[in-house]
Structure formats: C-alpha cells, structure tokens
Specification:
Elements lengths: L1 E5 L7 H13 L5 E6 L4 H5 L8 E5 L7 H19 L2 H26 L3 E4 L13 E6 L15 H14 L2 E4 L2 H10 L7 E3 L24 E5 L8 H13 L5 E5 L15 H12 L1 H4 L3 E3 L5 H10 L2 E4 L8 H8 L4 E4 L2 H10 L5 E4 L4 H13 L8 H8 L4 H12 L1
Parallel strand pairs: 1-2, 1-4, 2-3, 4-5, 5-6, 6-7, 8-9, 8-11, 9-10, 11-12, 12-13
Helix pairs in contact: 1-15, 3-4, 7-8, 7-13
Length: 410
Amino acid sequence: MKLLIPDPFSFPGGIETLNLALINSLEKLAERIVWVLPEYRINYFKSYLPPTDRLIYESFVFQDKSINRYIQAITNRLVRTNKKYNSQFGKSLNDWLLAILHKQRLEFLIKKYHITHCLYTWIPDQSFPGLSVNTAGIILDLNWHIFPENFRESANRLDEKLQQWLKQASVLFAISRSVYDEVAVFSPQFSSKVKVVPLAHESFVQNIQAIDDSSNISPPVFYYPASALNHKNHYTLFQAVFKLAQKGLEFELVLTGSNTHDLISDSPSLAPEVERCRQFYHRNFETLASCVKALGRVDRLVVDSLYQTCRCVVIPTRYEGFGLPLVEALSWGTPVICSEIAPLRDQVELYHCHDLVHFFPVDDVEALASSMAAMITENSVVRLRPQEVQQRLQRWTWNDVARDYILEMM
C-alpha cells in the first residue's frame, strides 16, 4: 500500500498525538506514506519521528515555478481578500477555493508517488475530496451535535459534510464504540461502512527512570490536559478545587491546553463556559490563586513531565470520542479520577486498569472533591510499575490500530 495522508489544518493537541503515533506505526506496514502538511509544520514533525525512506513529507504548496504555482498564488490572494470581509459568502467561497487547491495538489502527489490509498485523520470542516484513489477517514466524534459552539461552521453544515463522507468514502473508522453508536443513529443506512478501531497509546517507560516516589512530592499536583472548551468541564473542576482549598488542604491544580490561560485571565472571554470559569476564579481569587496554574499550550516534554510527577490526572469531561489523557496517564502508571462516560469506561475495560481509575458522576462536584481529597490525604499513592504498564498496554497498541486500518482499507 502507498498511502497519502492529507493534514491541511494540522491541529496541535490530541489530533497531533494521534497523527504522530498512527503514522509511526503505519510506516512499518505500508510500502510508502506521503504526509501532506502546511509547510511550517513539516520540520516540527520531522523532529519527532525517526527518519525513514518510507515516510515522505510534502506541503500543500507547489514548489516549482509551474502554472500550478501561479494559479495557487492567485487563489491564495483571493482567499486572503475574502477573509477581510468576514461574510458567510466569503467563507463559503474560501472553502470552495481551498478545496480546489488541495485537490489539485493531492492529485499531483498521487501521480508522483503512485499512491494507491488515502486516509484523512480529521474530517470535520472538510467536504469529501473526491480523489482518484480510495479514500478513508477517521471519525473522532460528533461533538457539534451537543456542543455546536466548539465549531466555526453550523451543525447543519457539518452534518452535510459527514453525510458526504459516509456516502462516498471507502471506509470510515470510529475511534470508539460510542462514536459508532452516534453515527449509527445519525445515518443508519451507512453504519455498515463504519468500523470501530479504538485509539491506543504506547508506554513511555523505556524513556524514564524509576518514578515510585515522584507522585509523593509536596504539595501534591492534580493535572488536567485539555483545551478550554465547553465539554471539557473546567467549571466543575474549579468548584471542586474551591471546596478543597476552603478546607485548608494543600495541593496544586495544573492545566495545560489551548486557551487555558483564558480560564484565569483578567480579560473577559467570548466563550460562555470559559467566561463562567473566569468569573468564578476571580470571585474566589484569594482562595484559588495559590493553587490553580493555567499554563496554556505547552511542549510535549512538559506534558510528559506533568504526567510523570503529578499525584493524579483529573478528567471531568462531559463528552469524549475516546479520551486520550486517560490512556496517556496509564502509560505513566499514574492514577486517574474521571467522569463516568462510556468512552472512558471502555478504556478501563480494554486495558484492565480498574485499580488505577476512580470514576465519579458527570458534573457531581461533591463526588469529584471527595475523590481528590482522598488522593491528597493518602500517605502514599500506588502507581503501576513500568513492567505492569508495559504488560497492560500490550493488550492494544498503535501497531494494532495501524494493522486494522490497513486491512480495512485494502
């Protein structure tokens, strides 16, 4: 298989983690992978993945001085002009122009590298590309049905685009049983085209030293890696933290992810949930300022360090397609307190980590505060040893994910 992976948006965060892990495993099985990225992101990803002749990086920009480069430059100028007017017509025209540009570039690469298959790892915001090779896609969630404010396009428009993919893609991969169930309700006539292939995570134990005592540092740290979006439910977490701080318990809450700075900013936010958190924080500033740290988007090394040294990872989310932070915490042997939603429960079953994960009902501030208090007052928190981490993570790895993708695409 010669596989094309277009990544026009190249989002940081969870989708970036998915791309790195999946492509690293696909590269071992495919004859060739061509990863198409925004030009400014290529060197960044090259620094993370080992060099190999089977993985080729390309940009969406024609590099030669051909007619294609000339047409691309004119079209990009039109796109920039339309953005200035910020009208719905301008946005629709830009989407149409960019789709033409991308298709032109991708068809060129398909011929250049004799591509046989194409895989999109992010399909919201993208119409089906209609390429000349079999095209598959990954459905991460149907978040816009519950939290439409997380997306720049309307829920109806996103539904139309997903329907295109369901009708025309060769196969689609749901990252959890929960996502498959949502798709089956949305479009039952095409549900047979959707295959459930859970995400995974490799162990980091080969890169770290003994961590037996690192979670007992004082004060204990709770860590929540999540962008400041409505469904991530920082507000419930802030309320629980306030209750614990009022009791005089010593601890820190560290937040990372896009726009988490806004949760404690002095400036108002246009995002309703972020603004609710921000106002709660400032109303209770004297209590919360000493124990809440919002770092914003940070380097992967910082994230890994926090997973390794925190007392516990806290995940109060209301909705996930999969929920990578849970299995990432497991890869460090770190305990987790999380809301009881189906995708997180499925991971616990998959990796047999019931002893490491403490569930609480969604939005239940008292239950969350109680679980966190128990973590603070325990003299020693039991973490999984590296050997146990390896054993459990081997139940389902990114190599298994890549294998199933290739088998279904063939």
